[in-house]
Amino acid sequence: MSFPLPDSVDALKGMIGREITALRAAVRRSAESPLDGSARTELASPLRSLAVLPASAKTDRASPCLCGAHEPGGSGVCSVLAAIPASAVLLEPVQDDSGAVADFRIVAGNRVRSADWLEAPDHQVGQRLLEARPGAAHSGLLAALADVMDTGKPLDGLVVDYTEQRLGRIHRAPLLYSAARCGEQVLATWQPVQSQAELLTIDAQFLASMGWGHWDLLSGKITWSEGLSRIFHADVRMPWTLEQLCDALVPDDLTALAEFLTSVLAGEEPAWTRIRFLVLGELRTLDLLGRPVTGTDGRAWAVDLVARDLTPQIRSRRRLAETERESDRLRRQTEAERRVADALREAILPTHSEALAAVGLTVAASYRPAEPDAAVGGDWYKCRLLPDGRVLVAIGDASGHGLDAVARMAQQRHALAGLAQTGASAGEITTWLNELVCSDPAGQTATVVVGHLDEDKVLHWADAGHPAPLLLRDGRTEPLGAEQRGPLLGALPGYAYETASAKLRQGDLLVLYTDGMVERRGEDVTEGIARLARAVAAAAPVEPQAVVDALLDDPGMAGHEDDACLLAIRVD
């Protein structure tokens, strides 16, 4: 075909229609008789031709049988049976006393067996139908054939679930029957609805997401496999025309489908393309392989299409790509957060100054996040020598996780460092910190212990909802008295925190910690505090850093579900 490619779906459908019309016209012209141009050969099935025999061919009961089996001058219908690809018989009605059809006698038959356990029809010539097919009455077949005889209306595609007992075994086969009246006889054909090979083919189509279709351009008959019907969500008994396929086409693929159909309708070699269709609002991508069925004149009188549904694979690839993009985004975000957290950790959790040793204190600290990949969280500590000679001691926990918690932790820690320069007491500093947290629009809370060690090694401290420090003295570890303990930071605006005092002695070890060291799911926190106290006592007397390391290496302490921070101070 030399026509240009259509530029719209309607133009494509028009092209298909014109090609089919031209094909049919050419076939009709070639079918005309060379001697008489008015004599045309009608295209019809053998069964339909037998069903509309001219009146001159019809006989009454006194006339010779149409099959020609009774005398040499018969019409020879028996010879037609051998050419039918399905099982076929010619039946003569047997009437009862009232004139109704009670049975049929098998006059002729071909050799096609519809099941391996059923005899070929030609072996049953002369038998009654109910003798040869005892299941005909129960299945409704006998009544259907009698109706054909009585009304003359052909039987087209009756599915009979034929069941029969042979040699003590029950056999069943779904058979598709067609029948037509031939004068005073009935021509019946049948074939399996689906063979085992066809059933396996259906399974294979399902597993491979494939299907096939056959479009007879001359007769207009269309046949779809179960697989193709499943792909397009269509009834296998109502397959789509080529024009209906065009209606489901994604507009952007018009040119590809036009080139494909043009090639196939032109009778060229098998063509392949990838086309997208919109089926019930769902985008489906198909690989199509088209093959023309050509006649001796080279024209394509039928089209075979094989389709493979790529939609599941494309969805999987799309989901995989989206997952990879999301994973890459999260990976970049995590790397960025890690870099920020590393910088924050170095800035806000520094190593301890040698100045502390100069005033008779040995200090060790450690921070361990609950998530191994996290560098820092909401827990923090502070231990440094102030200009007035006091040592600032503090530990806190900003609620939450991630960079938001880190930001609040940094804010509180730096605010503490600034407030400590004022010379205010621990209670006053904690009160100011509370006002800071209360003013945060995020509405988050925090806990903190703030204290000063003066030159006489007296600890003056305030507590805002935080576990009290542990004091190891003479082999015993007990929490400092926390009668002055106040509420969480951010919970009660305007609250004035009190300052308590505790005299430390040479050799005492003060351990400050966050709740990640003592809280366990389903356990009272007092049990966790008691467990930590015993572990501190068991680890002494050693250097503070060894105590901290021992606590974090202890299996009973290391399984924390929250960030954990330890600060150990020994009076030398």
Blueprint (SSEs and pairs):
Elements: H1 9-31, H2 46-51, H3 77-81, E1 87-95, E2 101-109, H4 129-132, H5 136-139, H6 141-151, E3 155-166, E4 169-182, E5 185-192, H7 196-208, E6 210-216, E7 222-224, H8 226-232, H9 242-247, H10 254-265, E8 271-279, E9 282-294, E10 300-309, H11 311-348, H12 354-358, E11 361-368, E12 379-385, E13 391-398, H13 402-420, H14 426-438, E14 446-453, E15 458-464, E16 470-473, E17 476-479, E18 500-503, E19 509-513, H15 525-539, H16 544-553, H17 555-558, E20 564-571
Helix pairs in contact: 1-10, 11-13, 13-14, 15-16
What features would you describe in this structure?
The protein has 572 residues and is α+β, with helices and mostly antiparallel strands. The chain has helices at 9-31, 46-51, 77-81, 129-132, 136-139, 141-151, 196-208, 226-232, 242-247, 254-265, 311-348, 354-358, 402-420, 426-438, 525-539, 544-553, 555-558; strands spanning 87-95, 101-109, 155-166, 169-182, 185-192, 210-216, 222-224, 271-279, 282-294, 300-309, 361-368, 379-385, 391-398, 446-453, 458-464, 470-473, 476-479, 500-503, 509-513, 564-571. The strands form 4 sheets. A 5-stranded antiparallel beta sheet has the order 2-1-5-4-3. The protein has a 5-stranded antiparallel beta sheet with strand order 7-6-10-9-8, sandwiched between helices. A hairpin with a 2-residue loop joins strand 8 (271-279) and strand 9 (282-294). The longest helix is centred in the middle third of the chain and has 38 residues, at 311-348. It starts with 8 loop residues before the first helix and ends with a strand.
